[in-house]
Specification:
The complex is a heterodimer.
Chain A: H1 7-22, H2 27-52, E1 58-61, E2 72-75, H3 77-100, H4 109-125, H5 129-147, H6 153-184, H7 189-197, H8 205-221, H9 231-237, H10 240-246, H11 249-263, H12 275-297, H13 301-321, H14 325-353, H15 370-385, H16 391-403, H17 409-436, H18 455-473, H19 475-489, H20 493-501
Chain B: H1 2-22, H2 27-47, H3 68-99, H4 109-118
Helix pairs in contact in B: 1-2, 2-3
The chains are: A mainly alpha, B mainly alpha.
Family (chain A): Belongs to the CPA3 antiporters (TC 2.A.63) subunit D family.
Subcellular location (chain A): Cell membrane; Membrane
Pfam family, one (chain A): Proton_antipo_M
Chain lengths: ~525, ~120
Amino acid sequence: MTHWIIAPVILPALLAPFIVLAARYHIGIQRVFSVAGVVGLIAIAAGLAWQAADGTVTVYQLGDWAAPFGIVVVGDRLSTMMVLLTSILALFVLLYAIGSGWDDRGRHFHALFQFQLMGILGAFLTGDLFNLFVFFEVLLIASYGLMIHSGGDVRLRAGVQYVLFNLIGSTLFLFALGALYAQTGTLNIADLAERVALIDPADTVGIRMAAALLLLVFAIKAALVPLHFWLPSSYAEAPAPVAALFAIMTKVGAYAIIRVYTMIFPPELDVTAGLHSTWLMPAALISLGIGMVGVLAAKKLDRLVAFSVIGSMGMVMVAISLFTPAGISAALYYIIHSTLAAAALFLIADLVRAGRDNLNLVAMPPVSGAALTSALFFVAAIAMTGLPPLSGFVGKLLILDAGLKSDAAVWVWAVILCSSLVSVVGFARAGSVLFWKAKSVEAEVGAVVAPAPSTLSYVAVGGLIALLVAHTVFAGPVYRYVEATSASLFAPDPYISTVLETPGKLSKPTEDKEEH
Amino acid sequence: MGLELLVASAIGILTAAGVYLTLRLRTFPVILGISLLTYAVNVFLFASGRLSVGAPPILTDATVYTDPLPQALVLTAIVISFGMTAVVVMIALGAYLGANDDSIDDPIATADDQVEDQA
């Protein structure tokens, strides 16, 4: 059995306490170890993704206890792809945090960053729903610390909202898990997939309640309207590198929905019929609309980016709620794109903030380094709004194409196309006010010009943009990969049999149970 | 039957009170509400392994035993919710002492800008 599959959880889990204990007062040493850790994560994640690329499902039994009695960590195409995406995003976010000095404006940034990575990567890799809850809590508690990093009254207040909203989400998650366990007697995802299909049609109250509650919980994470109210303030007030890392957190919700609602509650299951088409699809379309209208209505650049995240999550969820292989592949392609684009935009908003008093969308004298910043904003905005030639356009075409065969094709096409237009107007207005009109405003006499952001900041943002370009240029191979991924999601038998039939302690059905 | 009714109504009352308090506008009642909700969910999780009286949570020669797994889940859930409540109390206190305002919702836009300019 290979141990590498657990390494993405173990490595940050060891690095974070080391940074707290050994390098507490030395920001330089913290930076070195943090970057080295993330580079190591990328190498491990690339190896895992390469291993899973041919459809192999790798199972790691913690403590060698066989599933469903012990906890398993499972690496298949989907989870290793998300792990790789997270590690790559983390590297550029970390470089920006170092380049802009954000990590030095409060304590323990790097330790919390590593704990955050541990939670996110664990949530992607785990094969057990209760363990998913635990990793959600790990990533949340680290994110609470990161969210209020470097303090400030406004940030603390946004932090309170963020924490309380997520606490309610966690409580709902536990209710769902209790109902699920009461009805099936297991929380292992592969085992649940088998047992839910066998459930007595006369006794489905608990299972239907659990399915709806789980959808609610994951929709809170994915900031789906009407459960999105925590996102705009939190993301706008969080430190820029943290907001950029949070771009992957909404995708954790999307990932969980894809995993649970293809594996445990597949669309053809009678018990939960209608949950996807009747509830998820309209909510996704409304999110898309509200997000993009929010882009147009925002008075500050950071809020504008936050609303564009809601809109792009709406787009992802529209594709997911089709629940066809084509829809899921389009969603996966778009998830990669929107993570990178949203992260780049949050970092660019911070580049703008470095030279201005605030991010209000009013004309002010040009910021230092405005030429480069505005060019980056231009490219990132094109990507986010889905204009050609960047990957947002490719992703949107894929989603439109997948939506063509659905019953709600008219709605999908109408909402996606109209909201794209609205978001283009919103971003164009923001860009022209921030960068174009700036030339017409005279700087006050004697005003202190802030220094231009450091080269490393630009390297980090440029790296994200370069990844977006690569995501467009290599759209063919990437799409073939996500197509294979979604095909294996709709044929989960190898996953289930690998998880349940790998021998370990207690592998013969005996009466003893073990967890934690 | 009596035990089931008692546990079920306890969970129901705790949840109802928790939801009511969670919908308040100030942080203190909301934190209390969330605490009540976590108590309710702890009892709910505990009951998800079925209620049985006087049975050990381990296999013995006796035929009756109670499911130990929900008890392990509840322990984890209690620890996590305890820690989370402590965190939210600290952050809420910090926000209250900083802004001298205990409301949960976003401050109105003009006040927001002023606060940020001072900061």
